[in-house]
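> forwarded from #structure-qc
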């Protein structure tokens, strides 16, 4: 009778953990929190939260200082407010939690599977497309490198055609690419785990993560299919992954090492082993050969491959219909472009680090068929007619280019307001993307490039840039500066704001040019201009905002920095897309 009563009480213990994540940090915390709550006998669901504005998080190694005490506080709160029945104890940290996702494998002797996904040709990765809901087939027309071949960063402009969506794409829209693993990496994992006999057998699952729902729609899906198309085996792992390895390791020394890495008090050790060198899951499994993951647990142990979003770089144009097809019912096709930087770099590990999506994109050439998703833009639609101050760095120029083209193509009887673009890049000859277009833009757009690595850029710009028929003062004269930028060290502002301002002084970044053209910036904001900031999510957005505040003061719109901060917060529409 007591057992039945306990079962009833446990049945009502439900907990929902929501997260919003672009980098994976929030997802990792949510899953860790979900496991902690599950140990208190809650039936836990961890889901992604959409339609909310995401907050930035500190570097991964610093998150624990905030999260871990809060996690312990939550544990104490839940146990006091939702106590377990007297005869039931929380699940010990030394005991593995039951898997959330389990595969069943058709291991009947002699069974074979004919997969529609894993091509038997030499294609690597296979070109077969997943039945992903709301995805569409796109055909690559070109994949042109737009940086010089001798430049360290490979940036490419991908052009592709696809069926037109039901709603026209608005400025700020993104294209989602679904990357795949390469066959050699998958075979390495299969060999490490001893899955040779199960890899090409049909698998079934009653429950899978949302990102893997496509596998339930296939007539035949194998473990190899999941590894190529769905499970991220080259990611830098989170702590939760190593925790699962700890319970699977059979060697005492390896188990002890894994315990050290997942210990919250050893966050720096974990960071130095995984995040700093960008060590991949495959490499870590090679470091712990006693770990043998059951094939039935593959979906539960490995992270899933998430689609990567890229800002659309053009106002998606309809393609002309050939004369011989003009009378036939053909879906309307559109042309879409994305600007993608290939992620490749070196760490203390000898083998170069290459991003999963970058490696996949680099394998695509003209004529390749890929699956893509489209995510509608929001916010920038309101900027089609009003004045706009745009600030973009690097590939962040992509959504600004789409906005500019949309404004140029708008059919409104009222011409769009003036557009002022501050474009930050390294060099005029290296990464001044779409330079020819900016030179042909006409009177409606003024582009002020900030070439951070060109030593003659400041002098050159001081001679040539004119705005509204009036020369701006050169960088070294006539520009009122905040006290924190003065030569005096008395009363030096040591706050983050002061540090950012001092770091900008004398540089040739976008924020430097915003201050330099303070009178024009203030005049446009006085006239109702909106602000768009696109590019890196590091210090750039903060530095740009500080520069805007300084420009409002120097341009005479506000009397103090505090007033300028309030003005930007309450009276200026700021649209930001940073990553």
């Amino acid at each position: 009778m007591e057992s039945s009563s306990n079962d009833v009480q446990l049945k009502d213990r439900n907990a929902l953990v929501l997260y919003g994540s672009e980098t994976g940090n929030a997802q990792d915390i949510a899953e860790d929190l979900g496991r902690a709550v599950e140990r208190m006998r809650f039936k836990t669901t961890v889901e992604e939260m959409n339609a909310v504005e995401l907050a930035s998080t500190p570097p991964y190694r610093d998150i624990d200082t905030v999260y871990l005490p809060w996690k312990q506080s939550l544990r104490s709160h839940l146990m006091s407010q939702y106590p377990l029945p007297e005869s039931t104890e929380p699940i010990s940290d030394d005991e593995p939690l039951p898997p959330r996702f389990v595969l069943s494998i058709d291991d009947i002797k002699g069974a074979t599977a004919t997969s529609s996904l894993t091509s038997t040709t030499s294609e690597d990765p296979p070109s077969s497309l997943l039945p992903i809901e709301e995805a569409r087939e796109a055909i690559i027309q070109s994949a042109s490198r737009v940086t010089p071949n001798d430049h360290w960063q490979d940036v490419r402009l991908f052009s592709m055609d696809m069926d037109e969506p039901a709603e026209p794409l608005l400025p700020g829209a993104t294209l989602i690419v679904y990357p795949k693993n390469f066959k050699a990496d998958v075979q390495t994992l299969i060999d490490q785990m001893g899955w040779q006999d199960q890899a090409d057998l049909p698998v079934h699952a009653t429950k899978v993560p949302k990102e893997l729902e496509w596998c339930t729609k296939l007539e035949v899906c194998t473990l190899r299919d999941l590894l190529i198309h769905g499970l991220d085996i080259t990611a830098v792992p989170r702590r939760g992954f190593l925790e699962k390895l700890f319970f699977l390791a059979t060697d005492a020394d390896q188990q002890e090492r894994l315990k050290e890495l997942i210990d919250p008090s050893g966050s720096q050790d974990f960071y130095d082993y995984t995040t700093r060198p960008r060590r991949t899951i495959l490499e870590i499994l090679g470091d712990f050969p006693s770990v043998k993951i059951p094939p039935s647990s593959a979906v539960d142990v490995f992270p899933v491959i998430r689609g990567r979003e890229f800002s659309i770089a053009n106002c998606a144009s309809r393609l002309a219909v050939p004369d011989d097809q003009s009378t036939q019912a053909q879906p309307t096709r559109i042309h879409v472009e994305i600007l993608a930087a290939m992620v490749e770099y070196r760490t203390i590990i000898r083998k170069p680090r290459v991003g999963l999506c970058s490696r996949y994109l680099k394998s695509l050439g003209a004529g390749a068929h890929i699956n893509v998703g489209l995510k509608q833009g929001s916010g920038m639609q309101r900027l089609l007619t009003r004045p706009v101050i745009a600030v973009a760095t690097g590939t962040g120029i992509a959504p600004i280019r789409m906005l500019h083209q949309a404004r140029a193509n708008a059919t409104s009887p009222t011409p769009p307001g003036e557009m002022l673009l501050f474009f930050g890049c390294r060099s005029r000859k290296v990464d001044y993307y779409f330079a020819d277009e900016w030179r042909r833009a006409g009177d409606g757009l003024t582009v002020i490039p900030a070439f951070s690595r060109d030593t003659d850029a400041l002098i050159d710009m001081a001679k040539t840039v004119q705005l509204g028929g009036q020369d701006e003062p050169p960088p070294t004269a006539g520009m009122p500066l905040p006290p924190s930028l003065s030569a005096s060290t008395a009363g030096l502002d040591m706050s983050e704001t002061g540090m950012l301002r001092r770091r900008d002084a004398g540089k040739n970044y976008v924020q430097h040019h915003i201050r330099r053209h303070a009178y024009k910036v203030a005049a446009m904001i006085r006239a109702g201009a909106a602000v768009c900031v696109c590019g890196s999510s590091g210090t750039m957005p903060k530095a740009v905002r500080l520069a805007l505040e300084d420009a409002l003061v120097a341009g005479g719109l506000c009397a103090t920095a505090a007033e300028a901060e309030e003005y930007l917060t309450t009276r200026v529409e700021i649209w930001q897309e940073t990553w």
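QC bot note: Residues 51-56, 459-492 have pLDDT under 50 and may be disordered. Residues 105-236+278-301 form one domain.
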